[in-house]
Amino acid sequence: MNAREAVEKLHGGPVTGVRQGGGSIFLVTLDDGECVVAKHGVGDGATAAEAAGLRWLGESGDIPVPRVLGHDDEWLVMQYVPAGPPTAGAAEEFGRSLAKLHLRGAPAFGSPPPGGPADAWMGVAPMRNDTYPEWPEFYAERRILPYVRMCADQQLLSRDEIALFERLGEELPGVAGPAEPPARLHGDLWSGNVHWTGERVWLIDPAAHGGHREGDLAMLQLFGTSLLDTILGAYAESAADEGAPLAGGWRDRTPLHQLFPLLMHAAVFGGGYVKQALSAARATLA
Q1: Which pLDDT belongs to residue 140?
Q2: How many Å apart are CA 201 and CA 204, to the nearest integer?
Q3: What is the enclosing helix (H) or strand (E) of 258?
Q4: Considering only Cβ atoms within 10 Å of each terminal Cβ, which end of the chain, N or C, has fewer?
């Protein structure tokens, strides 16, 4: 089934045009002028996980997300949101709203969105969501060590480097900072998934799960996000206003929370991501 057929099946209405929007994304125009997005899943459970994540993140209305129009095992059809330039007002609102969204919480660390599969995806990498009572155990067993093993299988890490990550997993409780309740995370909040429309920020392409809120903040910092200082400042202010200020030293723990995406990228793309992951691990243990 192609993008045209997917939209006709899952959303309905004759299609008058299809154009590729990049990778597995297609912009599909219906005969009434409506434009929708059709996205082809990267693997088993990918469309179900993304649809569940969008609904979960959007149910509170804190931050807008594209409306899910339909999905099956292969395709996800959703609302098209035209892009606009980043603005200071949108950045400030986004920071404050993200703090509120995180505080909506999750049933446990590693919990998938309601109705979402445990076997999900982050980009093109598989990601397992299993529930844990404590964040360090979840992070070590589901966000660090699986990708270390993937890197090891590709001979991207030496024995000593593997041992470094294993030691970090063992020492996580001592370097993770004060305990926090599970937050409602986007899970893949790099700049490409912060969708600016001029007036607002929308969230797209989530890898949503219950996790540590510093994880989303670390992702915002990893690859560079427009108006980052404004976003983080508004976030910290809003979190304090909500009675849940960020714990002291949260900026120092950024490398720890960047380990997951760095290791995932290393496992998929290799190259410099391996060195970045090693640097983040050493900085965490220093």
Answers
A1: 96
A2: 10
A3: helix 254-269
A4: C
Specify the pLDDT at position 102. 98
**Contacts with 208 (C-beta within 8 Å, 6 or more apart), sequence order:** 49, 52, 53, 54, 56, 57, 112, 113, 116, 184, 185, 186, 187
The CATH number of the structural domain formed by 88-285 is 3.90.1200.10
- Fold of the domain spanning 3-79: Phosphorylase Kinase; domain 1 (3.30.200)
Confidence check: pLDDT of 22 > 80 = no
Instruction: Give residue for tokens 């990601």.
Output: 127
Q: What is the pLDDT of residues 182-237, one digit of tens each?
A: 999 999 999 999 999 999 999 999 999 999 999 999 999 999 899 999 999 999 99
Count of CB atoms within 10 A of residue 222's CB? 19
Rg (CA), the chain: 19
Which helix H or strand E contains 285, and what residues bound it?
helix 272-285
Tell me the sheet residues that pair with 122.
125
Give the pLDDT score at 43: 84
Give pLDDT, residue 36.
94
H or E element, residue 92: helix 88-102
Residues 131 and 209: their CA atoms lie apart, in Å, by: 10
Q: Token pair for residue 21?
A: 């929007």
Count of CB atoms within 10 A of residue 1's CB?
12
Average pLDDT, the chain: 94
User: pTM (2 decimals)?
Assistant: 0.94
Hey, is 202 helix, strand or coil?
strand
Structure tokens at 279: 């640097």
- Location of structure tokens 């809120």: 213
